[in-house]
Design a protein that fits this description.
By secondary structure, the protein is an alpha/beta fold. It has 10 helices and 15 strands. It folds into 2 domains: 2-231, P-loop containing nucleotide triphosphate hydrolases (Rossmann fold, 3-Layer(aba) Sandwich); 243-303, Alpha-Beta Plaits (2-Layer Sandwich), CATH 3.30.70. Helix 3 packs across helix 4, helix 5 packs parallel to helix 6 (183-198) and helix 8 packs across helix 10 (306-314).
């Protein structure tokens, strides 16, 4: 029995078990361990994220989930199947948006979708219907007859997402979906992905943008060095590992002044260009800084973010 989640844009088998289950999952390349024994489960209809810096193991994990890279060790089940034995069947039910674009520049925008649809056995008429519908969804209908090359980066990424949906997938995998895009393009892409999530499409994405993870993910794991260092919803992770507010202080003499801030707030982290004071009341922390006779060149009080969580867990920022 298939339940429609979006007219022509996805449906899935009703199942109690998670769509993705990994236990002790390992991926090695020679002597290098890219993924070091992680446990992950992704439920139907949720948006699940892998958050971490470059080299954390996110993309290696996604390649195993997309059945293009076999696990070295551990257990991995996708849609109740073994990706090593049942890779072809699993790939037919996945939509994949790779980090590096691989659109066919010799074909038109419309043909990129219809040609891809034929790989999944769709009839010519059904492929054209899907392509028309999906180009409307990603707001590229007016570019249907044009070539791919003149499209902006954001347009190409939306076209890649449309292509990933052409086979009516149960899971859509997105590897760094907005890397290199300008803010306007990122927000438009987020809006399209949010619409898919609202219709029950299961999204699995990697990102090193904390705001992207907060916007899109119901749950996420923070990865570092091939391991999972934290798991939960964005709000749960912030509540667990940070404080409600953060004060960013910059001093003319650099971050060396951090030693004079001991006891201001709950924690003080000195970065090369600024000092972060984690506090429940940011304004009270600022008042204490001035009471101690310190004069920062700039002061910013803001709410805690997932980047603060990552800094606390690994000692470095997400973009390092």
């Amino acid at each position: 029995m298939r339940n429609c989640r979006w007219p022509g844009l996805g449906s899935g088998l009703v199942a109690e078990e998670p769509l993705i289950v990994a236990r002790g999952l390992v991926k090695r390349f020679g002597e290098f361990t890219a993924v070091d024994g992680i446990d992950v489960s992704v439920e139907r209809g949720e948006a699940f994220g892998f958050l971490g810096p470059n080299g954390a193991g996110k993309s290696s994990t996604m390649r195993m989930i997309s059945c293009v890279s076999p696990p070295t060790a551990g257990e991995l089940r996708i849609l109740g199947m073994d990706p090593v034995r049942d890779g072809v069947a699993i790939r037919g039910r996945l939509g994949v948006c790779p980090q590096l674009g691989n659109l066919d520049t010799d074909l038109s925008v419309f043909e990129n979708l219809t040609t891809y649809a034929r790989y999944f056995g769709l009839s010519r008429a059904e492929a054209r219907r899907r392509a028309t519908e999906l180009l409307e969804f990603v707001q590229l209908a007016d570019r249907a007859k044009g070539k791919v090359e003149p499209l902006s980066g954001g347009m190409k990424q939306r076209l890649t997402i449309a292509r990933a949906l052409v086979n009516d997938p149960e899971i859509v995998l997105l590897d760094e979906p907005t890397t290199g895009l300008d803010p306007q393009a990122r927000h438009l892409l987020w809006e399209r992905l949010y619409q898919l999530k609202r219709q029950g499409v299961t999204l699995v994405l990697t990102t090193h943008y904390m705001d992207e993870a907060e916007q899109l993910c119901d749950r996420l794991v923070v990865m570092d060095g091939g391991r999972i260092v934290a798991e939960g919803s964005p709000r749960e992770l912030i509540d667990r590992y940070s404080t409600p507010e953060v004060v960013e202080l910059r001093f003319a003499g650099g971050a060396e002044v951090a030693v004079k801030l001991d006891g201001v707030g709950e924690r003080v982290d000195a970065l090369p260009d600024r000092v972060l004071v984690y506090a429940r009341d940011g304004d009270a922390a600022v008042a204490e800084v001035h009471r101690r006779g310190l004069s920062p060149s700039s002061v910013l009080v803001r709410r805690s973010t997932l980047e603060d969580v990552f800094l606390h867990l690994t000692g470095r920022t997400l973009v390092d």
